[in-house]
Amino acid sequence: MASVTRAFVKLALLLPVAFVVATAGCTSLTRDPVPVDQMAGAQVPGMPGVRGWGGETSPWLQADLVQSARDEQEEIVPRNPDGSRYYHVLALSGGGAQGAFGAGFLYGWTEAGTRPKFKIVTGISTGSLIAPLAFLGSEYDEQLKDAFTTITSENVFEMSLPFFGGEALTSTTPLANLIERYIDEEYLTRAAQIHAAGRRLYIGTTDMDAERLVVWNMGAIAASGHPDALALFRNVMRASASLPILFPPVYIDVDVGGRRYDEMHVDGGIMTQVFFTGLSLDLVAAARDVEAPVRGGSVYVIRNDKLSPAPEPIDRTLLAITGRAIAGMIKTMAVADLTRIYLVTEQVGGEFNYVGIPDEFVWEGQEAFDREEMRRLFEVGRELAASGNPWRTVPPLYDERKLR
After folding, report:
1. What's the confidence (pLDDT) of residue 73?
2. Measured in whole angstroms, how far is the alpha carbon of residue 336 from the centre of its chain?
3. Element (H or E) spanning 221, and its range?
4. Coil, strand, or helix at residue 249?
5. Closest Cα to residue 324, out of 308, 312, 337?
6. What is the C-alpha to C-alpha distance for residues 8 and 227, in angstroms, rounded to an integer?
7. Is 312 helix (H, G, I), strand (E, B) or coil?
8. What is the pLDDT of residue 14?
C-alpha cells in the first residue's frame, strides 16, 4: 500500500491549514444516523437481506448461499468423480493504485489458460474495483486492463479542502464517474445472470457508526430488479475504496421501522484487508444443506502489496513516522487476515494459495495513481501469472518446510 501511504502523507501536509479553516467556522455537515439500538434492524429500502455484519453468520447471506448451491451449473462448479463439488474462490485485497498488480495477474492468468471459474469472488478497497469485473470472467479482462492502466490521480480524486467542517481532503466525484464507466445497466444484467447460475460476489465496507465490517451480496443487488440497484451497486464499490481523511464517506439510505436514516460507509480495509468464508457465511455448510457435499476446493488470495519487512531509515518528522506506522499496521493486519483464511481453508480440507507483489518491485512514481507505474506493475502481475507456479501455499511468516 506504498502509493496510498505516500498520498496520505502528501495530502496530510494540508491538515494544519484545513484544521484552522474548518474550526474557524465551528459548523459541521448534518445527517440522520441510525440510533445505536436500531442498527441491527436497518435494511436497504426495497432490497432486504443484501448484506450482513462481518464477524457473525448472517441468516440472510447464508440462506442465499444455500440457494446458490441449488442453482449451481456444473460447467461453473466442477464435480469430483463421486459427484461431490470442488469450489474455487478468489479473494482480492486492498492496495490503492497497486491494484494494477491484481488486474495484471488476472489478465496473465487467463493468458496462461489455467484461470478457473470462481464460485465466490470477494473484494475489499481497491479489490472492490477489481472484483466485479473478475466476477464476470475472463471475457472482461480488457476492461480490467483499461481500468488499471489508463487512469491517473485525476480520475480518482480532486482536491477539496474541508472548509467549515468538511469530512475529507478530497472529493471522489472522479472515482464515481470512473465506476459508472464500467458498471452500467448492461453490466448489472450480466451480473444478475451469473448470480442466478449459482456464483456469488461479495464486497466489504466499513460502517463507521456501527464500527463493523459490512459484507454486501452484490449479485443479489444486481438481481433485485429494484430501480435503485445500479446506484447502490456503484455506491458500495466507491465506499469500499474510500480511505477516511483522504476520501469522503459514502452515505447509504436505510430503513428502520418505516423511517429513513443514513449510514456512513468507508473503506472496508479499515476492518479487514481481505476476506473469505467465516466472516458472514459458511460455504461448506451451505452445500451440505442441499446434500451437495464439498470434497476439496482452492482459495486464491491476491494481495495488492508486499508484506515482507522493508527496512529503511525513517526521517525524524511527524509525517514520516506517521506514514511508517500506518504502513506497518496495515501489513500486520494483512498477515493476520491471510493466516485466518489459511486456517479456515485447512480446516475444511481446501487448498490455500497466496500471491503478492514481488519484493524486488519498487514503486517509483510520485503520484498516488501514477499511470506509468501502474502499467509497469500490471505487467509484473501479468508476467508472474504466466511464470508457471507463482503461488505460495502458506501465509507470510510461515515456514513451508516445517509444514510438509
Report:
1. 78
2. 16
3. helix 218-223
4. coil
5. 312
6. 36
7. coil
8. 47
Between CA 38 and CA 305 the distance in angstroms is 38
pLDDT less than 70: residues of the chain:
1-28, 76, 161-165, 278-279, 399-404
Element housing 261 (H / E): strand 259-267
- Residue 167: the pLDDT is 86
Q: Which of 190, 218, 212, 237 is nearest to 120 (CA)?
A: 218
For the chain, what percentages of helix, strand and coil (3-state, to nearest 5) are there? 45, 20, 35
Angle between helices 99-112 and 141-149 (to 10 degrees): 150
Give the tens place of pLDDT for each residue, 243-276.
998 899 999 999 999 999 999 999 999 999 999 8
Give the span between the Cα atoms of 133 and 106, in whole angstroms. Answer: 10
CA distance 351 to 345: 6
How is residue 72 written as a grid cell? 449451481
Predicted pLDDT of residue 5: 52
Helix H or strand E encompassing 107: helix 99-112
Count of CB atoms situated within 10 Å of the CB of 65? 25
Please give the pLDDT value at position 320: 82
- Would you call 27 helix, strand, or coil by DSSP? coil
Evaluate whether 229 touches 221 at the Cβ level (below 8 Å). Answer: yes
Q: Are strands 158-159 and 170-171 parallel, antiparallel or unpaired?
A: antiparallel
- Cell 470477494, located at residue: 122
Residue 151 β-bridge partners: none
pLDDT at 166: 73
CA distance linking residue 381 with residue 379, whole number of Å? 5
Taking the CA atoms of 24, 29, 30 and 35 in sequence, report the sign of the dihedral they define: negative
